Amino acid sequence: MKIIIDTEENLAKRAAQRYVELIKNKPNAVLGGATGSTPLGLYAELARLCKAGEISFKDVRTFNLDEYVGLDGSHDQSYRYFMNHNLFEHIDIDINNTRVPSGIDTAAAAEYDKEIEAAGGIDLQLLGIGVDGHIGFDEPGTPWDSVTHVVELEQNTREVNSRFFNSIDEVPTHAVTMGIKTIMNARSIILMAIGSSKAEIVKKFIQGPVTTDVPASILQLHPFVEVYLDEKAAALL
Ligand code: GLP
Question: How confident is the model at residue 137, as a pLDDT?
């Protein structure tokens, strides 16, 4: 695991350069997308680089990690909406080459891993981390061999994510998420964490035991993971 500690602004720039490099070498790269507040700086930087002609997503395909069950892509808290508005509309990607698990047709989850495989597998998967160590929506206790599936969200995750909704009652109780195995199958992974609320879990997943109690800890066993942290998230390392 390679650890990169820098300011939030520089992290976004440095992570974006990884995408520039990757897509230069492989213009039809397959990217794994993430949502949440953490990747917003990176997405803004990718949009800037694309406008400046330094990167092109023309032949890139993407697969997002997760989606809320019950929200369709027009709901402003759906992850499809998030991706369209924060990234896809600002870059030269063909929207037909972007996939987000369906929160409506949840039976389609069973095909998601096969679709990823048919696309050649994910070259670079982006991850944030929940305060309980979840990646995607793989909550503590998720088996290591899980593939894309429907999950019930932890109360704590719903509370944390309720900041984006009018009230906690509006936060869906379930989500579709790539499994741990789906994520671990990616050829390379970038996990980003920003702010002091992540400091404890960052220490646990990097320096603690590999345990399903801390889903992100499995990343210790992946051959190519880069962890991008600001000073606050890295404070307890
Ligand atoms: C959600 C998402 C995760 C994300 C996490 C942290 O639960 N499903 O993919 O990593 O939130 O979000 P944030 O980056 O806003 O802290």
Answer: 97
